[in-house]
Amino acid sequence: MQLSYVYTSEELSTIRSTISHLPTMSKSDAHAMNLKVSTGACPSHLGPFHKLNDSHPDLYRKLVIDAFVVKYGAYGFFPKAYDLIYLSDESPNITFSGRTRGRVAILTSSSYNMVIKPLQNSKEAEIATRAGKLEVGPNQFDSLPGFLSEEYVSGKFITDNSANHDIMPQPVDIGIKVGSALSKLHENQICYNDTTLSDPEKRSHLIINQAGNIKLIDFGLSLSLNEYPNFSIEETFNYVRTMPIYRIFSAMNPTREDVHSFLKSYQRTFKEISPDTIYDRDIQFLTEGLQLMGDVLTEPDKTDFMKGFYEAYKR
Ligand SMILES: Nc1ncnc2c1ncn2[C@@H]1O[C@H](COP(=O)(O)OP(=O)(O)OP(=O)(O)O)[C@@H](O)[C@H]1O
Ligand SMILES: [Mg+2]
Question: Which of 135, 159, 217, 285 to mutate to test the pocket of ligand 1 (most atoms within 8 A of CB)?
């Protein structure tokens, strides 16, 4: 433990408040930050903290000489990560992933693994917490506003398999687990809305651990039906974005105002769309996605998967 790098609780709260403002940074603030970095006035790993140079110069100098900030940047200051990095002798590995939502940091060490990711929608933290408690998604930890800090699910993605080899656990068993996971979500008014077993680049949201249990990761597009039929514009967008009607509309290069009025008018139609229709889309995505997984699952595998799914899926 390098005690000289431990921060006072006041310093930590200043740092954490700076981090919490990052996801909602204005364009002009982002521009100012990039300028500081590109002109060399601020080292790139300190970009998120550059304003502290004026407001809290002593704290800024402390960050400048902190070797952990070079390695972990802002991620080292998240509650669980801070304990692991600054208050123990561990020095976890850090890797990065993520596309749609921005940078996802994955911290792994002998004692502890965790993931820190920016929120993709304003209800994601609440939905991910519910899904974690249902043991369908990763457990959620204390985090900072604007970000999730969650359990790293170790295991294999379903797409790590190949149709030339027997897949373990058997597809019927994976189908049963997915059926029961979606049942739990739907019983608890959550439409996962992203049952992507595989995208064209073989990225998946389904992780299977060594014991053969599954977890779904990424609740960035999920919808809570707690307030059905009332959905926000953001939720309405997440619901329509994959629909043919929206694809055709967006191909016409709509203005921001056009998009807003399209979503507003769609928002009013939810009272005519039953919750069952909304939950059905999780099954529709699943069956459509399976058809595109010829290199991962054979035709009999796919049939077995869906047989298992319908055995376990109850609504
Ligand atoms: N809890 C987790 N446990 C293990 N790996 C995770 C976890 N969360 C995210 N990952 C890894 O990070 C990747 C990106 O995370 P996520 O799907 O939440 O972000 P994204 O921006 O939607 O990325 P993508 O477009 O790749 O799906 C995942 O595909 C997975 O490899
Ligand atoms: Mg994703």
Answer: 217
Ligand index nearest the alpha carbon of residue 120: 1
Alpha-carbon span 42 to 33, nearest angstrom: 9
* pTM score of the predicted model: 0.93
Q: Which of 85, 118, 151 is the last residue of a domain?
A: 151
Q: Is there an atom of ligand 1 within 6 Å of 179 CB?
A: no
Choose among 191, 176, 177, 208: nearest CA to 130. 191
Three-state DSSP at 104 gives: strand
Co-location of 120 and 175 in the same domain: no
Are 174 and 286 found together in one domain? Answer: yes
Domain co-membership, 96 together with 184: no
Q: What is the distance in A from the centroid of ligand 2 to the CA of 1?
A: 35
Query: Atom of ligand 1 at shortest distance to CA of 152?
Result: 3
Each residue's pLDDT tens digit in the chain (315 positions)?
A: 555 578 999 999 999 999 999 999 999 999 999 999 999 999 999 999 999 999 999 999 999 999 999 999 999 999 999 999 999 988 999 999 988 888 999 999 988 899 999 999 999 999 999 999 999 999 999 999 999 999 999 999 999 988 888 888 999 999 999 999 999 999 999 999 999 888 888 889 999 998 999 999 999 999 999 999 999 999 999 999 999 999 999 999 999 999 999 999 999 999 999 999 999 999 999 999 898 899 999 999 999 999 999 999 998
Cβ of 101 closer than 6 Å to ligand 1, yes or no, is yes
Q: E strands of 171-288, at which residues?
A: 190-191, 206-208, 214-216, 223-224
Q: 313 alpha carbon to ligand 2 midpoint, in Å?
A: 23
* Residues 114 and 189 grouped into a single domain: no
Looking at the fold, whether 182 and 219 belong to one and the same domain comes out as yes
Give, as one character, the DSSP assignment of residue 107: E
Pocket flag, ligand 1, residue 73 (CB < 6 Å): no
